[in-house]
Amino acid sequence: MFDNSIQRGVPFECVIGTGRVIKGWDLGVLGNEVGNKLLEKWGIQMTLPDFAPMQVGGKRQLMVPASLAYGERTIGKIPPNSDLTFEIELLEVKTRD
Question: Deepest of 29, 66, 88, 97, by most Cβ within 10 A of its Cβ?
C-alpha cells in the first residue's frame, strides 16, 4: 500500500478526464463510453469492458496496468512497471459552476 485517504482522514481530490491523474483513473471513473474516446485520443489500442460512469456514492475497484499508471517511472514507493489496484468511492462531484 502506498496511500490510504481513509487512514489520512482526508479524501483524495482530483480532476478527472483532463490528464491530471493516471489514465487508469480517468478510464475507471468515466466509464467505457468516454473511456473509449480517451483511448482513441491517446492513441492506445485496447478494448474496455462495458461499464457505466461512476455515480456519487458508488464504489469501484480499479485494476490499472502499468501502461495506464506510471509505466517505467518510479513514483515514490511505486517501482517501475507496477500494476496498481485502487479501492475508490466517489463522494462528490464538483464542477466549475
Answer: 29
